[in-house]
Amino acid sequence: MSVQERKQRERAERERLIVATARELAEQQGWDAVTTRRLAERIEYSQPVLYSHFRGKREIIGAVALQGASEMAVAMRAATAAADGPRERVAALARAYLDFAARNPAVYDALFQLDGGLAYAREDTPAPLKDAFAALLETLGEVAGDGVDPGLFTETFWASLHGLATLTREGRLPPEHTERRVQMLVDRLAMA
Amino acid sequence: MSVQERKQRERAERERLIVATARELAEQQGWDAVTTRRLAERIEYSQPVLYSHFRGKREIIGAVALQGASEMAVAMRAATAAADGPRERVAALARAYLDFAARNPAVYDALFQLDGGLAYAREDTPAPLKDAFAALLETLGEVAGDGVDPGLFTETFWASLHGLATLTREGRLPPEHTERRVQMLVDRLAMA
DNA sequence: CTCCATTGTCTAGCGGTGCTAGGGTCGGAT
DNA sequence: ATCCGACCCTAGCACCGCTAGACAATGGAG
C-alpha cells in the first residue's frame, strides 16, 4: 500500500507545483502568457499531464483563485484585527483589500475578472470564496446601518472596492488620490 | 475627383459595417466569438481587408468602445434630464448606467473590461470617452458635498457603479436586490 | 488605343493557442 | 518470468491573430 500512497503524495505535490507555477507565471507576465505549453515546460512535464490534473486551463485559473481567496481572507482579518473601532476596522479592511489587489493582480484577476469555472454567491460556492466574503461581512456588518441587511451592505461595499481596484489598475482612473477615494467610500458608506 | 470621393465613401461605409458587425457578433455570442475569420466572413470580405481599416482586433474593440461611449453619454443625459432635483437625477443616472451595461454587455466590456488600446483619464483621451465622463460629472458634481472635488467624487461614484455592473453580470453578486444596492449607493454617497 | 503604374483584394501560410488520440515504456502483482 | 495496467510522451487536430506575395482591376499618360 505504501507505494500507492507515495504515488498519491507525489501526484498531489505535482498538482501544487502546477498551480504555483501558473500563478507565478501569471504574476510575472500576465495570464496571457500562461499557455499550456509554457506551463508544461516549466513544470518539466508534457502538456497532457496538465489535463490529468485539471479539465483545462479554466480549472487551473480556478485553483489559483481559490488559493488567492484564502490568502485574501487572512490578509483582511489580520488588518481588521489590528484596528480599533468599527470605522477604523472598515478603513483597514478597505486598504487591505485594495492592497491585495494591487500586489497580486494576477490572483485578483483569477478571482474576480477571469472565468475560473467557479460558482459565486450560491450554496455550492467553494468554501474559500464563502470565507473571503465572510471576512468582509464580519467587519462590514457592524456598520451596515439600522434596518439594513448586512449581506446586502457588504455586497454593495465590496462592489465599490472592486470597481476602484479594477479601474485603477487598468489605468482607467488616475493613479493618484486613491487613498482619498477610499476614504470617501468609508466615510459615506459606513454608518457608525 | 468624384470617383475618388465615391471610393472614399464606400470605404467609410465598409468600416462602419465592420464595427457594426463586430458589435453585433459580440452581443450575440460574446467577444471570444469575434474572430477575424468570422468577422471577415460576415462582412463578405477576406481577413486582410480588416487590417486595411484597423491595426488589429484590439482597434476594432476600441472602435466599438468609442461608439458605445457616445451612446452611453446620450442615455445618461436623457435619463437625468427627465428627473427633478439633484438626488433624483443621481438615481436616474445610476439606473441608466446600469441599464446600459446590462443591455449592452459586449459594448460595456469593450469600454471598461477589454483592451481596446484607448487612453483613459489623460489629455489625449478620445473625445467620446471624455464626454461620457463629463455626462457623469454634470449630474454628480452637484452632490459631491462641500469641499470635495467633483472630479474625485465622480470617479469614486463611477467606480462603485462599475463594480456593481460587472459583479452582477458575471454572477458574482446575486441578481436580485440590484435596485436596493443602487439605492443604497445613491442615498449614502450623494450629499444634497 | 495601348501601355503602365497604382490600388485593391485574395489565397496561402506562419507561428501560436487549447486540447486529445494513440502508442510505448516501465513497474508491481501473480 | 510473465503479464497487465498505470503512466507519460509524441504527434496532431482545429482554431487563433496576423502578413507576404500573387493577381486583377482601374485610372492616367503617351
From TrEMBL, chains A, B:
SUPFAM superfamilies: Homeodomain-like, Tetracyclin repressor-like, C-terminal domain. The keyword Protein transport does not apply. Keywords: DNA-binding, Transcription, Transcription regulation. Residues 35-54 bind DNA. PROSITE patterns: HTH_TETR_2 (PS50977). Residues 12-72 form the HTH tetR-type domain. This is TetR/AcrR family transcriptional regulator. It comes from Streptomyces albiaxialis.
